[in-house]
Amino acid sequence: MDISxxxxxxxxxxxxxxxxxxxxxxxxxLQIKSLKKEIAQLKTIKKEFDLxxxxxxxxx
Length: 60
Known about the structure:
ribonucleoprotein, single chain, structural constituent of ribosome, ribosomal protein, Ribosomal_uL29_sf
């Protein structure tokens, strides 16, 4: 699975969680925080690959 695809999936899941929160149906509000953190980490990794700061997976 591509990083971009994972980011999009997580952003969609985050949107669903925010909707559940607005409808007061969210059981664990900490899910939003952890999903935001995961999205930020994935975006950082993607940016590092784009800038060439991270090598390919095969080079390790």
